[in-house]
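FORM 12-B: Structure-to-Sequence Request
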């Protein structure tokens, strides 16, 4: 039974910062890539960032590049997403996900959390 639990979402002012966490349990996650996706009202779920198991490879969507940082703590089975210089268009439900290989496609990810709401006010 795999569980992914996101936390850290909430309300932040434009230009502010927020740190999201996702803790995984129920599985040995060695070798898994961990990613973040988001879905805003009326929009499809979109890729945000992904990080390899070792942390040596990271990829970001163009919309968040330079503002967001993904990181992971394998000992804690946790992936983080640091949101800096937040914009109103970052408002969405943020989901973490796991996959055996590095990918930017949501369909490739086998395990998903329930999501955490991030709202950026103007």
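FORM 12-B RESPONSE
SEQUENCE OUT:
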């Amino acid at each position: 039974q795999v569980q992914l639990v996101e936390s850290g979402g909430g309300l932040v002012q434009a230009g502010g910062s927020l740190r999201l966490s996702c803790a995984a349990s129920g599985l040995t996650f060695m070798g898994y890539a961990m990613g973040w996706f988001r879905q805003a009202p009326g929009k499809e779920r979109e890729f945000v960032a992904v990080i390899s198991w070792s942390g040596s490879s990271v990829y970001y969507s163009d919309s968040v590049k330079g503002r967001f940082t993904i990181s992971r703590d394998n000992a804690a089975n946790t992936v983080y997403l640091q949101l800096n210089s937040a914009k109103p268009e970052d408002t969405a439900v943020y989901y973490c996900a796991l996959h055996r290989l590095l990918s930017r496609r949501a369909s490739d990810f086998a395990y998903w959390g329930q999501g955490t709401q991030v709202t950026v006010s103007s």
